[in-house]
Every structure is written in C-alpha cells, then in structure tokens.
C-alpha cells in the first residue's frame, strides 16, 4: 500500500478490469472491502464470546495471599449461581429491549416528520440561475433519503451495541470466576464487536449511498455531496435522543438506587434487595452503550460529510477526481485495518492478566493504534490525492483559492490523531484513581460531601485546559494548511481509530454490568473484587471515550460551520463579529448549552425523585425485603425510568432541532452563524468539565471502597462517613457525566449539520437576511 502511495503518479493509467484509473479502482475496493472485513472480524469476536456457556461445572479460581488457585466448587451451588446470573441477564435484556422499543417508536415518528420537513423546505426553494425546479426537487428527495439512511444506521448501531453488551455482561461475570484475564478478554472482545460493527456498517452504508446517488447526479458532484449531508443529520439527530433519553433513564435509576440503598439502607451497591438495581444495570446499556454508539457514529458521519462538501467545490470535485474525493472514506477504511491489528494485542497477544495491568492494557490500545495509524495516514494521503489541488476562497464565492499539497493532508490527519491521544491521556489523568487529582477528591471526603463537591468541580474546570489547547492547535494547523477541509480531516484523524475507541468505551458498561450481576448472583467477595477492578478501569475508559467524542465534536462542528458558510453564501469579507446580528447570535448560542443542560439535569432530578419515592415505598411496605426473604418489584422501577426518559427527552430535543430553523428563517444566515459559533465555544468547555467532574467523583468513591492503598484504607472504607460523602458526590456527578455532558457534544454537532442541510432554504428567506428583518425593513 505504501509502495502504491509513493508511486501514485505512475498509476494514472486505466485499469482494464474496471475501466477506471488505478488509484480509483483500488479505492473502490479498499473502502467496501475494509468495511466488510470489520463486520467479519466482529462476527469472529462474537463467536468467541458466544462460546462461553452460562452453565455450571467449571473450575473456579480463588485468591489467597495474592495468589490464585483452582477450587472445584460444589456442583449444585455453582449451577445455582450461574443460573441466577443467567436470570439476571435476561431481566436486564428485557428491560433494555422494552425501553429501546418505546424510544424507537417515538424516533420513528420523528423521522417521518423530519423527512417531510427536509423534502418540503428544500424542494420549495426558488431555483437559482443555471438550476431548474427538477434540480431542487431532486435535492430534496435525495437529502431525505440520505437522512433516513443515516438515522436507520444510527439506530442499528445503538441497538446492536446494546444487544452485544446485554449478551456479554453475565458471561464476563462468569469468566471472572476463572480469573482476571478471561473476564477482561470477554468484556473487551464484546466491546470490540460493537466497535467494528459500527465502523463497518457506518462506512459501508455511506459508500453505498454515494455510489447509488452518483448514478442519478452524474457530473453534478457538488449537488451529490450536498445531498449526502442528510446522512450526517440523520445519524446525529437519532444520537441526540439516544443520549438524552438513555442518560435520563440510567441516571434516574442510578441516583435512586444509590441514595436509598447505599446511603439510607446501608446496603452494598448492586445488592439484589434494592428495587432499582435492575433498572440501574439496564441504564448502563441504553445510555452508555446505545447512546455512545449512536453519538460516535454521528461524529464519523458528520466529519466525513463536512469534508466531502468542501472537497466537492475544490478542484478535486471539479475535475471529478474519484480517489481524491473519497480520501475521507479511505482514511476511515485504513483506520479499521489498523484497529483490527491493535485489537489482537489486547485479546490475544498481551491481555491483562492481573488487576494492575487492566488500565495499562486499555491505554496501550490508544497508543498503539495512534502510532500505527500515523504512517498509514501518510500512505493514504500520497496515494489517493494528487500532488496539489486547489480549495475555494474563504467565503466559497471568490476565485481566489488555496493550493494544497497532498502531504498537507497527512499533517492535518496526524494533528487530529495525536490530539485525540493527548485528550485521552489527560482525561485518564484527571479521572483515574491511580493519579493524584482523584485521590485529592477522595481525601476531601473526610470533611463531608461539600468539600468533595468543591474539589470535584475544581478538577473539572482545570481539566478543560489541555483539551482546549489541543483542539485550538488542531484548528490552527488544519485551517492554515487546507482551510475548512483541513479541519474536517483533523476531525477524521481523531476518529480514524473509531473501532478501538468504541471498544475501550463499551468495555466499561459491560464490566459495570458484570460487577452488578456478580453481586446479585452471590458470587462472593473474590469475584466481586475482580469485577470492581474491571469496572474502575471501565469508568476511566468511559471518560476517555467522552473526551474523544467532545474533542471530535468541536472539530466536526467547526468544519460543518465552514461548509455552512459556503452553502449559505455568507460573504466573510464584508461580515464582522461586531455586526449586531452576528454578536446577538453569539450571545444566544453561548447560552444554549446552559439552557440545554438545565433541562436535562432537571429531567434527571424529577425522574430520580420518582425513583427514590418508589424504592422507599418498597422497603417500607414489602415485608422481608431487607432480610432477603422477599423479592422486590424490579419491573415497577424499570417502568418509572422508561416513562420518565421518554417524556423528558422531548423538550431538550425540540430545543436543539428547532433553534437553527427558527433563527435561520426569521433572523437570517449571519445571525445563525453567530449562534453556531457561540454554542461551539461554550459547549466544549462545559461538556469537558461536566464529564471529567462526574468521572472523578465516581472513581473517588471506588477508591474509598477498594481500599487498595494505605491512604485509601485510612479513609474508612465502605459504610464510613467518608464513603457516604463520596457516594453523594458520585450521585451529583451522575447526570453530569452520563446525561448533560455527553449530550452537549451532540448539541453543537447537530445544530451545525442541520444548518448546513437547510442552508439553501435559509438563503431563500429574504436573501439570507431573515423574514423578521425583512418584514420590519431592518435588513
């Protein structure tokens, strides 16, 4: 592959088999081929996980004096434990399926309404010079088809991730009875199944959409790739509802379970006597798995669409350079192959065998994939792109352009790739209890929950520094070398190792569920110690995943913003930040993340209040519940979380979806540009601080519980006043890190891609000046 890249200029001859230039022929094989390889590799990993049987009769490892030894358990007792684990798994699957069925029903209604809006608004535009009514109708039809395809792919990504996680959680718990290594490999392979399925399906579906649309658009590549933006809109809009709805569900259950169970009743986490425990474990899957899968798919789709829209108006699109135009897809295809080899390191070559190796092994995945992807990115850039090409001017309207060399794009990809690694490593530092920041937060629990919360908030604010600098450098380098195309490719670089990022992110909720199942099935302290170690590392990897999502969202949003400026025909030469419409939009946009966060956090609070009252009622009215002789009503708590999540996700979703349409149509394209920029600047900082603060509080609690060091043991352990303060801090942080924080990156992406899709309609409203200003003669 590298040989081809260096020798690209000698391979412009026509390939006889495909009647295409050789690089084009290779690209047309590499993209779908890599996607199919990803899906097949996921199936292989799935079969290895499925080979773990939920049956008794297995040898179990016990720990004594730091060493593990085999112990044959009583056959009857062992079968009873495994049967309980299988029963708990079935309950979690049932709850997750019920929630997703209800959520997808409302998503289906939304898809229908949104499809009508896209077709109606884009088809009603008055044709410009050189275009016909049929061209506008075609644009509306294919933008709608792309939207539906992206939405379905996003739903599929989330659903498959949830199914995999709920299938693997009990198997991870059962494997933990053999030791750390089998449990780790089960959880990580399951996460990798989700990662490769999502990366494969996302890339394959996008390639198919482009190939099919090309048959209808012919030489109109600008119109073709503008219609493809609907794919990103579909993916991100579904991700919003998945993140918000799933986040409200999981945190309502988690807060209710912790406040009543751990603080009031003084029972352990995931104790089967707690009525909210099944809903809590269901929430890990519908929020952290299905929501994160849809979120990162949306980032991939949007960054690719942004790069394609900008490239279409460059000489790559004007000369119909097929391999050059599909450069963003080839980057993602090459990333899949890199991630495949990286995954084998953790699953086969060097898996974690003891507790101390878990976080190191997961961190090694990020480092290896980044190192391997760097020379591959150079090969892709040299092979697929011509030696030089020209991008349009900054406003997309002038003939003055920027000449870009193919190796510039390698630099853009690499800066995003290494910035992502830097953000991941610093997120680990601020959220892992192996490092001083989280230990300081745990130590603050000595004086109560107030100081715990103060230290956690300070940690979150401080953790914004490095990601902001890394993103700023990526933006500057990408823009200097290749304008908005460079920024979009920097985002693609950060997401090029998407399969690995998703694998280590999905690993966390699977391990968390495994710990809960081990506790509820009565597998003993030794097993719970192992699953707790897996879960603690999973909390850190989940925070790292959120860091990647937020960093890539910032770059994606700016790239989409640039594409919107071009498509909305905003003249940057005569525009200024001091323009009252732009500045007013900036202030309003900077406020939106706070308004959105207020809505989502209040939703969690309302749902948690209902959950707390229900859990208290069951403890007070069900005789024998505390003694363990009666079974709680798990389904009632699942129903409360489901109903709350479905009803409460509508208002925040409407805020995000309606804001660009209302602002763009009434107040004009320049005001909307200000809104997008303002929401981006404030949303990134808020999302980073929320996610890292919540992650730090969670791991501070686990640091106190584990008592793995002399300092941790001095804090008192489970049940102490220090532990109760840590639980309160963790409870406050739950909606921050799992609901509001992760949803903010979708807010800034979704508003940007929605503005890009509807940009022609906004421009048709009084020439982009807005109906309000036109009506009052203020334009």
From TrEMBL:
Which cellular component terms (GO) are annotated to the entry?
endomembrane system; membrane
Q: What InterPro entries does the record tag this protein with?
A: PPase-energised_H-pump (IPR004131)
* GO MF, one example: diphosphate hydrolysis-driven proton transmembrane transporter activity
Which residue ranges traverse the bilayer? 25-46, 104-125, 137-162, 183-210, 325-346, 367-386, 406-425, 469-495, 548-566, 578-596, 657-681, 756-776
- Pfam families assigned: H_PPase
- Protein's UniProt keywords contain Transmembrane: yes
Keywords per UniProt: Ion transport, Magnesium, Membrane, Translocase, Transmembrane, Transmembrane helix, Transport
Identify the EC number(s).
7.1.3.1
The subcellular location is:
Endomembrane system
Identify the domain of life. Answer: Eukaryota
Q: How does this chain sit within the bilayer?
A: Multi-pass membrane protein
Predominant location of this chain?
membrane
User: PANTHER family, alphabetically?
Assistant: K(+)-INSENSITIVE PYROPHOSPHATE-ENERGIZED PROTON PUMP
Q: Which NCBIfam families match?
A: PRK00733.3-5, V_PPase
What this protein is called in its record is H(+)-exporting diphosphatase
Which species is this UniProt entry from? Polytomella parva
């Amino acid at each position: 592959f590298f040989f081809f890249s260096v020798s690209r200029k000698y391979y412009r001859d026509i390939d006889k088999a495909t009647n295409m230039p050789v690089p084009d022929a290779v690209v047309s094989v590499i993209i779908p081929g890599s996607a199919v390889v990803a899906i097949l590799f996921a199936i292989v990993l799935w079969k290895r996980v499925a080979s773990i049987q939920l049956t008794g009769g297995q040898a179990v490892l016990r720990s004594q004096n730091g060493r593990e030894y085999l112990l044959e358990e009583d056959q009857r007792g062992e079968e009873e434990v495994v049967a309980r684990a299988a029963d708990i798994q079935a309950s979690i699957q049932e709850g997750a399926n019920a929630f997703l069925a209800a959520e997808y029903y409302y998503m289906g209604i939304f898809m229908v309404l949104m499809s009508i809006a896209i077709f109606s608004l884009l088809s009603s535009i008055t044709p410009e010079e050189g275009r016909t009514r049929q061209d506008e109708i075609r644009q509306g039809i294919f933008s709608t088809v792309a939207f539906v395809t992206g939405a379905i792919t996003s739903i599929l990504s989330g659903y498959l991730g949830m199914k995999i996680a709920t299938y693997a959680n009990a198997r991870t718990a059962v494997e933990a009875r053999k030791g750390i290594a089998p449990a780790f490999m089960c959880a990580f392979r399951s996460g990798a199944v989700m990662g490769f399925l999502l990366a494969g399906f996302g890339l394959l579906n996008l390639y198919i959409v482009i190939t099919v649309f090309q048959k209808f658009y012919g030489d109109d590549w600008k119109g073709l790739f503008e219609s493809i933006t609907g794919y990103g809109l579909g993916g991100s809009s579904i991700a919003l509802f998945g993140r918000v709805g799933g986040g409200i569900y999981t945190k309502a259950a988690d807060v209710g379970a912790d406040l009543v169970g751990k603080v009031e009743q003084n029972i352990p986490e995931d104790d089967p006597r707690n009525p909210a425990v099944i809903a809590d474990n269901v929430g890990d899957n519908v929020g952290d798995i299905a929501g994160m899968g849809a979120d990162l798919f949306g980032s991939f789709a949007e960054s690719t669409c942004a790069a394609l829209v900008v490239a279409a108006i460059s000489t790559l699109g004007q000369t119909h350079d097929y391999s050059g135009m599909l450069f963003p897809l080839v980057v993602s295809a090459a990333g899949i192959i890199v991630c495949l080899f990286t995954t084998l390191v953790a699953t086969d070559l060097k898996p974690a065998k003891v507790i101390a190796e878990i976080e190191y092994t997961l961190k090694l995945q990020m480092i290896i994939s980044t190192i391997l992807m760097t020379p591959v990115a150079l090969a892709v850039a040299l092979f697929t792109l011509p030696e030089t090409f020209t991008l349009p001017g900054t406003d997309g309207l002038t003939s003055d352009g920027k000449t870009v060399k193919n190796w510039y794009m390698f630099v853009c990809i690499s800066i995003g790739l290494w910035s992502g690694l830097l953000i991941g490593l610093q997120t680990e530092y601020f959220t892992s209890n192996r490092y001083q920041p989280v230990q300081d937060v745990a130590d603050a629990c000595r004086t109560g929950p107030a100081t715990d919360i103060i230290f956690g908030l300070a940690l979150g604010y401080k953790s914004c520094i490095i990601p902001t600098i890394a993103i700023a450098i990526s933006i500057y380098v990408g823009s200097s070398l290749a304008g908005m195309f460079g920024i979009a490719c920097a985002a693609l670089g950060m997401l090029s190792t998407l399969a690995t990022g998703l694998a280590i992110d999905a690993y966390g909720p699977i391990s968390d569920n495994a710990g809960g199942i081990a506790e509820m099935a009565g597998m003993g302290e030794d097993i719970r110690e192992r699953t707790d170690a897996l879960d603690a590392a999973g909390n850190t990897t989940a925070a790292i995943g959120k860091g990647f999502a937020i960093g890539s969202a910032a770059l994606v949003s700016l790239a989409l913003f640039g594409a919107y400026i071009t498509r909305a025909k905003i003249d940057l030469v005569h525009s200024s930040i001091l323009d009252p419409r732009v500045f007013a939009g900036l202030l309003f946009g900077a406020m939106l993340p706070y308004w959105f966060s207020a809505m989502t956090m209040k939703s969690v609070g309302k749902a948690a209040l209902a959950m707390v009252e229900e859990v208290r009622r069951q403890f007070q009215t069900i005789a024998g519940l505390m003694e363990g002789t009666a079974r709680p009503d798990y389904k009632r708590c699942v129903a409360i979380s489901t109903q709350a999540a479905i009803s409460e996700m509508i208002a925040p979703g409407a805020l995000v979806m309606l804001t660009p349409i209302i602002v763009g149509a009434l107040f004009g394209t320049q005001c909307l540009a200000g809104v997008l920029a303002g929401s981006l600047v404030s949303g990134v900082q808020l999302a980073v601080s929320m996610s890292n603060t919540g992650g730090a509080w969670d791991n501070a609690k686990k640091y106190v519980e584990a008592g793995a060091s002399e300092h941790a043991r001095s804090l008192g352990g489970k049940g102490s006043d220090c532990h109760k303060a840590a639980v309160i801090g963790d409870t406050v942080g739950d909606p921050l890190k799992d609901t509001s924080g992760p949803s903010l990156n979708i807010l800034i992406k979704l508003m940007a891609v929605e503005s890009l899709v509807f940009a022609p309609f906004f421009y048709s409203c009084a020439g982009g000046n807005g109906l309000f200003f036109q009506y009052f003669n203020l334009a």
